[in-house]
Amino acid sequence: MDFSQNEICRLFGIQFPVVQGGMVWASGWRLASAVSNAGGLGLLGSGSMKPELLEEHIDKTVVATSRPFGVNIPLAGTYGAAHVDVCLQKKVKIVFTAAGSPKIHTPRLKEAGVTVVHVVPNALLAKKAEACGCDAVVAEGTEAGGHNGREGLTSLVMWPSVADAVSIPMIAAGGIGDGRAMRAAFILGAKGVQLGTRFAATVESTAHLKYKEACVQADGGQARIYNLQHMPIRSLMNDYVKEFCSLEAAGTPVEELQRLRGKGRSQKGVFEGDVNQGELVAGQICERIKDIPTVQELMTRLLDGFERAAVSISAR
Ligand SMILES: Cc1cc2nc3c(=O)[nH]c(=O)nc-3n(C[C@H](O)[C@H](O)[C@H](O)COP(=O)(O)O)c2cc1C
Fold first, then answer.
1. pLDDT tens per residue across span 243-279
2. Which of 67, 121, 168, 290 is least surrounded, with the fewest CB atoms within 10 Å of its CB?
3. Ligand 1 pocket: which residues have CB below 6 Å?
4. What is the 281 CA–ligand 1 centroid distance (Å)?
5. What is the chain's Cα-based Rg?
6. pTM here?
7. 27 within domain boundaries
8. 144 CA from centroid of ligand 1 (Å)
């Protein structure tokens, strides 16, 4: 398939307009380099790394692939600003920012020649990201695993709104797991797609096997948004989330709920595979995840499905 004229492929210098979302505890150098080597754009998920560890992962990615890769930085995290510094020092060429304002760091990154993409949950914030100088936006619908917008806009509603609102290219995210969904995103205005949960459940992701198996076993309805009052997160329903939600419903103060969540819940769930007491960050696309393929297998399937979907549309 020839994507040589595709805006996202040209922006990043990649073969296929497929981005592997940055993911805490799941996307280290092994996953990011595998995606980049398969022709997509791999992103290191810096959100679960201290600055020294991010440096190490950048160095390892450079060794593992000669192709473009990037770093995802949740700006509101403890090390948001420090991770921007690391990316500048290490001359990382592509940075995706999320969970925070793109106002502060985008100008600095742009001055250094970095391609900057910001993750947004609606058209208004997409416009703001464009005004800050971002080169593209990721429009992430509420189906997505991880931190979620408060309004809960679905991908189907939001993608065309974002595509119409900005002149920079839109990368669609939230609920994409195969080539048919990728084609649907393109029909709704996307120039590229970002997949999170589907890549977390591949061989190369650093997520625990029990987490990956939980994604395979879960149906979409088990991937719920919780922690609504503080910071909405979509993760799989388990004993811990049930307890959290019943305390929340009983009016437990937010501070107490945050104490229960603690600091290491996503590490416990995604990385250590504690399926009962950990936070199993994952999206509704679990509905359609039936196996744990290698990145190369997944990319081949995705692109075949994308092509087949075009044929099936034109046949109708
Ligand atoms: C385990 C996990 C961890 C995530 N961590 C982050 C993160 O650190 N930063 C971020 O911007 N998005 C994060 N996300 C969101 C993904 O980057 C991606 O945008 C999202 O998963 C896309 O929706 P999908 O899960 O339906 O594919 C995470 C998602 C998952 C499943």
1. 999 999 999 999 999 999 988 999 999 999 999 999 9
2. 290
3. 21-24, 26, 45, 47, 72, 74, 98, 119, 140, 143-146, 173-176, 194-198, 200, 270, 281-283, 285
4. 8
5. 18
6. 0.97
7. yes
8. 7
Q: Residue 18 CA to chain centroid, in angstroms? A: 11
Q: Using CA atoms, how far apart are residues 153 and 143, in angstroms rounded to an integer?
A: 9
**Domain check: are 309 and 191 in the same one?**
yes
Tokens 């592997």 found at:
20
For residue 170, CA distances in Å to 28, 46, 173, 265 come to 25, 22, 9, 31
**136, part of any domain:** yes
2 domain residue, yes or no = no
**For residue 48, how far is its CA from the centre of ligand 1 (angstroms)?**
12
pLDDT 10s digits, 15-33: 999 999 999 999 999 999 9
Interatomic CA distance for residues 251 and 150, integer angstroms: 19
103 and 241 share a domain?
no
Structural domain for 151, as ranges? 7-206+291-314
